[in-house]
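Box 4.2: Ligand-aware structure prediction
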Amino acid sequence: MDYSREKLKWNGWGWLAQDFDLHGREEGLWAFLQSQLGIDDLPNTPAVAMEDMPLPENRLSRSQIAELRGLLTEDRVCVDRYERLFHAFGKSYHDLIRLRRGDLDEVPDGVVYPESSDELAALTQFATTHHLALIPYGGGSSVVGGIEARAGGRAGVLTVDLTRMNRVLDIDEESLLATAEAGIYGPQLEEHLQKHGYTLGHYPQSFQFSTLGGWIAARGAGQQSNRYGSAAKFFAGATVVTPCGTLHSITTPNSAAGPDLRHLIAGSEGVFGFITEATVRLHPLPTARDYRGFLFSEFKAGADVIRQIMQEHVDVAMLRLSDADETWFLSQFKSIGKPASWASKATSAALDLVGVGEKPCVLLVGLEGTTTSTSASRVAIARIAMGAGGIPIGAKPGKGWYGTRFDMPYLRDALLERGVGVDTLETSTTWSNVQHLHQVVRKQIATSIRRHTRVGNGEPIVMAHISHSYTDGASLYFTFIFPMSLQAPVEQWRAIKREVSDAILENGGTISHHHGVGTDHRDWMTGEKGELGIAMLKAVRDSVDPHGLMNPGKLLP
Ligand SMILES: Cc1cc2nc3c(=O)[nH]c(=O)nc-3n(C[C@H](O)[C@H](O)[C@H](O)COP(=O)(O)OP(=O)(O)OC[C@H]3O[C@@H](n4cnc5c(N)ncnc54)[C@H](O)[C@@H]3O)c2cc1C
């Protein structure tokens, strides 16, 4: 895969040559959204062209640029418009609306592409001497402001793009461990592992455009984390270059030698240093895959089924339960531009008959492993789901989801072109609080959107699903679609985000289950960790980065 910067969108998602396929469905989609949101017209809201973007003056001097080129090579030190804008923000709704409007406070003064730990160590020295900030940059898919070019009071910003550090260094087949450089993209890593018959199995929705180092630094979770583990689990060890030297963590499976430093590396978001190499736990490539669906008459029944599956330790790769609003939205979206078929009418009539009702909730179950293990899980899951009133709907919805699982983010770009806002947020809590948190947060999102949106007399679309599950609880992932404020979209987003984040913390959720903290969640960190907890993390940061040059303004309040 060619990840040259000019092949990728700088103010949208993914490949430049790829858009969400709305062929023959565009008019239907706009009409559907207009009627749901109660808007007469969806305005064209084109993005500002790159050449018209206001670009802050470069704070790097000529001699500094020359010195940097001496440390790396000429072609790996970039100060041109494209590189500076490409690396200015991540890929959140908040990032894209600012990029599309040319609403930039800070952009990096330069972008550097190191190729080794030694070069990174030299860059930290350079930044210390010249009083610059360094921003570790993997795939740039952060949705929490994790790579914003904040100088934090320093004299300028260098974004350090790690994607040229992309080699797989070792596969230890006996221990099922692989070591790779941290800037390797998901598909590059999987291609290499799969040639040897293994997989890491970490497939976040951003898989194609995110890196190993970013997965660990943001403490993320892939869509099949039930089987393959979240980053904190599959991460077995790392090398971290800090401004005060290089840290090598152990890779033993467990250790009682005091607190495990690996827990400080996973989730460190670049504020302690650069993860340069990481060792991760592998699995043999699955030889069987089975994704299928069940319908439930209510969210609680589906959630109870997930809880039981987890607490009985059934071997599953993914359990994804959409609430009634998400199930309804997805089925409406799928049918846009298509005449209601005889088969689908018959299916809804049949569902009415078996008592699933008008607004069912769909549970997708993903199984991966061997034919024997997936068959055993299929039987166990059918027993639990059908015992709780679930109606099996076969493999078609599962296959459909699997085949298009990386496509949805492209749709956001199309919506932004027509003044339609779409954002997501996620949290997790214990099973005893899942229903309460789900209700409170969806209500708060709708209330906040209404309060901070002046257009539209319909209802915002607010939907959620359980995305990751454990024996003791689950994560809730919310998506909301609303009329964007054309005058002040950033303020609108900020007000909604603030109120909903408060509601999450007040009602027993974490500020993030897998997106991380960055700048967007930083203000809720004290509420989550407590003053003392934050003081402990700051003490660690100060011990490896006393001058505060690493990723200022992220993670820690
Ligand atoms: C459409 C979309 C879908 C997403 N789906 C998921 C999902 O399913 N699951 C999930 O977990 N996340 C998801 N994310 C969020 C994002 O993709 C993850 O946080 C991902 O792990 C970031 O990886 P990256 O390589 O892009 O890191 P970046 O965005 O480049 O960086 C993320 C953070 O890590 C730091 N960092 C990056 N590399 C290093 C390094 N080598 N050393 C030290 N610090 C580093 C950065 O400074 C920053 O703070 C999604 C994002 C988008 C836009």
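In the box above, the bound molecule is flavin-adenine dinucleotide. The pocket of flavin-adenine dinucleotide is lined by residues 90-91, 135-143, 146-147, 162, 182, 204-206, 210-211, 213-215, 217-218, 220-221, 223, 269-270, 274-275, 409, 514-516, 518, 551, 554 (CB under 6 Å).
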